[in-house]
């Protein structure tokens, strides 16, 4: 009986000594808009709400060493309030998109041990869900329902998005037919401009070629008549006509070269432009998670 009593007593002592990790939390967002407190979703953690958020509002990246730049502040808060960790959250955006930044500090070392920045399309209760996913990832307590809630609206990674239209597809179409890629990307104004300019230049190339070819044929004809002439009047006449066609041939040859260069250059520019304005649906859905676990120096 005494042996059983000692066993139960030892178990009670062990569990009594296991304390919840205490976390000082600073939030820069409208808690009324987000809803319930994140603490309700992590009952195994002891959250303490911070009051003065101002020391954490400055840009972390502006510090010489982001990992340890707030070391003294974090240590002082940890000692003063007897907490193990500090979590800082900042949410900004509008009804369409928002950006969440989360920072986690260890009060014993004073260093930044985890950071996440995510820019994402707003979805139903998305801000609270992203907070839960972030804090859950920090403490390895991610609920499958939170992941499912996000998957119902968003893709996990941009690489998983199957795009019906792509920038490459737009460029290929414009290289095949100027303006097609722009129309494909719903950039109708630029599509009209490129297709119109290219049509004018191609028409100029064709006209220059036809005139060049005609002047060459006329030059050959008058040169032959000049050689076959037996009268001085005919000599003079066909010599003038030959010279005129020669000058025309040079003029149309130059026009053919320059219009061809202009047309080819515009064709290439049109393809590059189509790629630039090409559809990129992943930007309208989600950007990749920017996760950084800095090392203290």
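^ Assign residues to that structure.
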């Amino acid at each position: 009986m005494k042996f059983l009593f000692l066993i139960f007593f030892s178990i009670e002592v062990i569990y009594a000594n296991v304390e919840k990790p205490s976390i000082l939390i600073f939030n820069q967002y409208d808690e009324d808009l987000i809803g319930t407190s994140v603490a309700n979703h992590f009952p195994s953690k002891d959250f303490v709400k911070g009051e003065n958020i101002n020391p954490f509002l400055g840009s972390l990246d502006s510090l010489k060493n982001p990992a340890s730049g707030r070391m003294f502040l974090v240590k002082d808060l940890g000692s003063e309030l007897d907490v193990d960790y500090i979590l800082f959250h900042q949410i900004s955006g509008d009804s369409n998109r928002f950006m969440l930044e989360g920072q986690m500090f260890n009060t014993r070392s004073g260093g930044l041990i985890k950071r996440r920045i995510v820019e994402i399309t707003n979805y139903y209760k998305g801000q609270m869900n992203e907070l839960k996913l972030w804090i859950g990832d920090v403490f390895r307590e991610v609920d499958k329902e939170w992941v499912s809630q996000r998957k119902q609206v968003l893709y996990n990674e941009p690489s998983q998005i199957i795009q019906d239209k792509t920038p490459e597809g737009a460029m290929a179409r414009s290289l095949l037919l100027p303006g097609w890629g722009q129309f494909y990307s719903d950039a109708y104004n630029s599509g009209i401009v490129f297709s119109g300019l290219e049509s004018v230049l191609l028409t100029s190339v064709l006209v220059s070629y036809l005139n060049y070819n005609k002047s060459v044929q006329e030059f050959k004809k008058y040169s032959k008549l000049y050689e076959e002439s037996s009268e001085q009047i005919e000599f003079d006449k066909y010599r003038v006509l030959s010279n005129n066609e020669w000058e025309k041939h040079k003029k149309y040859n130059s026009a053919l070269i320059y219009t061809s260069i202009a047309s080819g250059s515009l064709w290439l520019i049109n393809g590059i432009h189509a790629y630039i304005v090409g559809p990129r649906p992943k930007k309208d859905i989600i950007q990749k998670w920017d996760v950084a676990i800095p090392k203290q120096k």
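The mean pLDDT is 81.
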